[in-house]
Amino acid sequence: MAETDPKGPTGVTGEPTPARRGPGRPPGRRAGTGETRTTILDAARTEFAARGYAGASVRAIARGAGVDPALVHHYFGSKSRVFIAAMELPIDPDVVVDHVFAEGPEHVGARLAATFLDLWEDPAARERLLAMLRTAVLGDDNSATREFVTVELTTRLADRIGTEDAPLRANLAVSQLLGVALTRYILRLEPIASTPRAEIEARIAPVLQHHLDGGPRVA
Q1: For 73, what's the count of Cα atoms within 13 Å in the CB-facing half-sphere?
Q2: What is the pLDDT of residue 90?
Q3: pLDDT: is 199 or 24 the higher one?
Q4: What distance in Å separates the CA atoms of residue 102 and residue 95, rounded to the nearest whole number?
């Protein structure tokens, strides 16, 4: 797999150098060129639209692009990163979750709150997040974006929590973040819309911590 240049805890990365055709590449498959990445992304958008995130596969994307599956892995590394690039998402959930849990469970709430607000306070990232959120909320029942959030973010959080009620805890944490995004950045309800970022972060961090640290349930 080619190396990429990480851009911080959101996990958005640079582009790998395309591979040359090797001796074992089947005939009829397109080797790596400057246009190949675009062709793969076009095929990925078609596949995700038709089958959703869970139903799509790297093999099917490669078939649609006329390339070997290994070339898809070379450019993107995994299906989740193909989706991130195809939909121009500003985050990689795998990297975000690793970052949030990097200092242990005692700090997950604060780190998740900070990462979330860093994204939404950045104008360029905010535009892409708004598009992502609209697609997830207003899309059809097979919305690939909704499936992506479920599989790649909520499930990864639940795996890190590791308790019997981890799926519920992860969903509650994500719902807290979505609620802040909706009221502060989309509906712009007052007073939350004009409250300083530091105060919002300080208020939601303990709530996220409660959901994510696997502590005792509320009776």
Answers
A1: 7
A2: 84
A3: 199
A4: 10
Task: Let me know if 130 is exposed, middle or buried by CB neighbors in 10 A (0-12, 13-18, 19+).
Answer: middle
Longest dimension (CA), the chain: 64
The rounded distance, in Å, linking the Cα atoms of 182 and 175 is: 10
Residues 8, 85: Cα–Cα separation, whole Å: 16
Cα–Cα distances in Å, from 47 out to 37, 43, 144, 168, 217? 15, 6, 10, 30, 41
Cα separation, 86 vs 132, in Å, equals: 12
In order of their start, the domains of the chain are: 1-86 (1.10.10.60), 93-212 (1.10.357.10)
Residue 89 CA to residue 131 CA, distance in Å, equals 9
DSSP, residue by residue, 55-104: H--HHHHHHHHTS-HHHHHHHHSSHHHHHHHHTT-S--HHHHHHHHTTT-
Give the pLDDT of residue 5. 41
Angstrom distance (rounded) from CA 44 to CA 64: 8
Buried b (16+ CB within 10 A) or exposed e, 40-75: bbebbbbbbeeebbeebebebbbebbebbbbbbbbb
- Collapsing DSSP to helix, strand or coil, 110 comes out as helix
DSSP class of 19: P
How large is the average pLDDT for residues 71-84?
94
